[in-house]
Every structure is written in C-alpha cells, then in structure tokens.
Design a protein that fits this description.
205 residues, mainly alpha, globular
Amino acid sequence: MTNLMSEVARHLNDDVVIQLSKQIGAQDPNQVKKASQGISELLLNAIQRNANNQERGGGLFGAIQKDHDGGILGDLMSVFTGKKQVSNQSTMNGSGIVSHLLGKQQLEAAQLISQMSGLDIFKSGVLMQLIAPVIMGVVGQTQKSGGLDLGGLASVLLGGGQQKQQQQAPQGGLGGGIIGKLLDRDGDGSMMDDLLSMGMQMLKK
C-alpha cells in the first residue's frame, strides 16, 4: 500500500494539483493537495477491501482489466485540461468508480476529507471523483505490469504490513482505523450522489 500511495503521489504532483484546484474552484492548492492525499488513502483502502471480498472482487478485477490499464497516467495534465481525449469513457467515470468503491459512504467520505483538509465538503466530493480514475490507473498499471491475478493484486494492496502502518499512521493522515470505521458503516449517500452529479454538470459547462 505504501508503494502504491507513493506512486499515486508521484502522478498527483504540484502542477496537477494546481490544475485540479482550478477545476473545482479551490483557492488554496495546499488544501487540495492534502485532500488528494486523504482521498488516495481512502480509495486505495476501499479497493483493497473490494479485492478481498469474493462477491465484489471479481467485478473490480474485471473493471481494472477492461478500463484501467494506466494509460491516462502518461499525460495527466493533458487529460485534466481536456487537450487529450480518453476514448474509453469508463476510464474517466469517476462518479461510477467512487459509487462502486464507497457505495452509500460517499457523503461521509466527503465529510471526512473536508474535515481533514479544510476543503469544503462539496469540493472534496468533486475532487474525489476527479482523482478516482488516477487511483484506478495506478492499481491497473500495477496489475498489468506484474501480470497479477485477483489474489496477487489483493496481496499487493494489502502490502503485508498494512495493519501496522494503519496503527502508526502519520500525523495529518486519515488513519486506517478511521477509514475502517467509515467503510464498515452503512450511511445513506443518496443526497451526496445528487449534489456531486449537479456539481460535475456545472463544471462541464
């Protein structure tokens, strides 16, 4: 997990963060960077939980193989600025990715990211949808380069020492315990779904 977090952070560099800040209308790129780190941790943990679930793991693995080979990572700035079009619409379907990974916990996730970063809840939710394809791209690239099956991918995501890392989460991070409680809860995120859908439509205008 630590290696994947580092890889995600490498792609979400300062230039990309500034571009994302412009897209969501955030004034402080530092808040966006902090929120991006929290979102990365949250979604990678959600992917790991899905990969270890027999019912959901197959669907996740199929989506990774079909839609997320990491191709977008080669030029993220062009993707986010619209200079480069992605032919596979599912690759950039951040709303669908977040909905699949978090289900009804989307509202609580956005609240958690907002509290951690200082970025308001609406912008945190939209940022989550923008970053989700990057997270999946990194996971997909890892799966493809290693020729991993679902079990192998789950092992990479777990990273062997994840539990210890969660207990010793760095100050300012979300912390594995908080993430676990969030992902185990059954809150109703339908209102957040509607708000984020409206927000994404506004951004596209």
